Amino acid sequence: MKSEYPQGGxxxxxxxxxxxxxxxEGFASLGQSQKQRKAVHAFSATLLLMLSILPSxxxxxxxxxxxxxxxxxxxxxxxISVRLALTADEVYGGLSGVKDTEFKSHEAMxxxxxxxxxxxxxxxxxxxxxxxxxxxxxxKVVALKRKLAAHPGVMPVPPIDQSATxxxxxxxxxxxxxxxxxxxxxxxxxxWSSTPPLQQISAxxxxxxx
Length: 210
What we know:
This protein is α+β, with helices and mostly antiparallel strands and 210 residues long. It has 2 domains: 2-13 and 59-209, Protein of unknown function DUF192 (Jelly Rolls), CATH 2.60.120.1140; 18-51, no CATH class. It has helices spanning 34-51, 88-93, 179-182, 198-209, and strands at 2-3, 69-73, 79-85, 107-111, 117-119, 121-122, 130-135, 141-148, 166-168, 170-175, 191-192.
């Protein structure tokens, strides 16, 4: 799934540890010997890596502290497990290449942006139909596209389905066959129910995309 960022980029689903661990920074001023600093660096990098991965293998935090997962709550109190697109590559890739068995009906991909802009989504290289929700800064649905048709592969025949371009802050993508997605409509209010706050995540993601 490809989503425009902000006028030509898109949304990504493959999560990676990309930046080197920032826990290293600042230790040089503590007066330790070079050997001690190396030991602290190695321990810090190992600790952050351990904290960033659940036993199931799902990454919870990127190497520099940006969360990769979270929860959204709907007006009827249904919980959505959210994957966050962090980097420009992830934002551009979206749900492209994600197989039907790899994305559950209670899951969503959330693309968090630092400011409003023109957003659109295409179905290039997708394997299941997708409902796309365009959100304002407060996570209220301002527009939506139902059943963006799956398009395995990148060939333009048949034509690749694409949403209209909408002025919005964030984008949420869910499976079209999700019972939760079917209850979300224009005007629906979603609630970020994880920590840190979404504004902090937005600032964190902005530094990855710059």
